[in-house]
Amino acid sequence: MEDEKDAFELFDEGFPDRALKTSFYLSLVLIACSLSYMSVMLTVSLALGCFISLTLCSVLWRTIRRSLKRDKSEIKSIFLRDSIVKYVFVGVLLLMSCLFLDVNVAAMAIGLGIVVAVIMMKAGSRLLVSYVNRAVKSSGVRPSNDG
Fold first, then answer.
1. Residue 43 counted as domain residue
2. 12, CA 20 to 30 Å: which among 35, 89, 97, 123?
């Protein structure tokens, strides 16, 4: 029963907003670092991948918020409509960027994986901290105040 409670505490209400904010700042740092390679297309590819990733995550979170305010019968139609619009937008954006720009595929893939990496790091760190807290509680060790 306690494990189920911990699983629900892993993703609180503000988690997606914090993950998006962290992803945005990490994207800015990566784009600034990519400027040192003196390749405009590398920077553009990374920025485009980050933009797509952040946009997809924010649209998904907005869809979830909006569907929670509606009836159960409308949830499927909301997700279907938003998913179709979202993936058509991404498909057109990727097609246009590949046709008209000489994109760096590796840089774009790194940019597309930014939000997923941040969510995994945040969830992993929360799980690690809760595991260490349980281990310290079960061992009965108290921190010393020898400061």
1. yes
2. 89
| Residue 82 identity | D
Nearest CA to 85 out of 116, 112, 114, 62 is that of: 62
Q: Count the Cβ atoms, other than its own, within 10 Å of residue 147.
A: 3
Is 107 a member of any domain? Answer: yes
Q: Are 97 and 41 in contact (CB under 8 A)?
A: no
User: What is the structure's pLDDT at 10?
Assistant: 60
Count of domains forming the chain: 1
Dihedral of alpha carbons 19, 68, 6, 4, sign: negative
Q: Write out pLDDT tens, residues 15-62.
A: 888 888 999 999 999 999 988 888 888 999 999 999 999 988 888 888
CA dist 81 and 15 (Å) reads: 25
3-state helix, strand, coil split of the chain in percent (to 5) is 85, 0, 15
Look up the domain containing 101 and give its range. Answer: 14-126
Q: What is the pLDDT of residues 86-141, one digit of tens each?
A: 889 888 988 888 888 888 888 889 988 998 888 888 888 888 888 888 888 777 66
